[in-house]
């Protein structure tokens, strides 16, 4: 009889938390921008006519975009301080948890983050939607742990 293989299910994207240094754990509804891009340069070498040589260049981190229902002023204040010239870098972590929420399955750590853009809610007197704010964060590096 064949041995049964262990099953490895993919991580689910709905159970996560975002931590920013000294700020309370954020209850965000969306977290985007977990990406690193590397640019490549094409080099047409003489005598090589069937393809271009490709060389990697610099890598760049994409800005993180965090969205949540407005519950306090902390994210606004961080961005407002930057606008006034008070630069306060923060390190952060995005933790993906198992469906029960008890086990951290995956961590993304980012360093020296600054708020680049704060966007307030779309307001409509005719709707009953939650007021959602968005914060775009630039950072100096993204590492995957676990």
Automatic annotation (TrEMBL):
InterPro entries: CHP02241, Phage_T4_Gp19
Pfam families associated with the record: Phage_T4_gp19
Gene Ontology molecular-function annotations: structural molecule activity
This protein's name: Phage tail protein
Source species: Streptomyces mesophilus
Lineage of origin: Bacteria, Bacillati, Actinomycetota, Actinomycetes, Kitasatosporales
């Amino acid at each position: 009889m064949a041995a049964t293989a262990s099953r490895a299910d993919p991580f689910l994207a709905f159970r996560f938390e975002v931590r920013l240094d000294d700020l309370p754990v954020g209850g965000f509804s969306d977290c985007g921008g977990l990406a690193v891009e590397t640019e490549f340069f094409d080099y047409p070498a003489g005598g090589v006519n069937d393809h271009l040589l490709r060389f990697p260049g610099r890598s760049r981190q994409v800005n993180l975009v965090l969205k949540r229902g407005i519950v306090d002023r902390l994210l606004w204040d961080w961005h407002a301080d930057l606008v006034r010239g008070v630069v306060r870098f923060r390190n952060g972590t995005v933790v993906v948890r198992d469906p029960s929420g008890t086990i951290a399955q995956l961590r993304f750590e980012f360093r020296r983050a600054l708020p680049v853009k704060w966007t307030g809610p779309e307001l409509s007197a005719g709707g009953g939607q939650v007021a959602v704010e968005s914060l775009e964060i630039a950072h100096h590096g993204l590492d995957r742990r676990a």
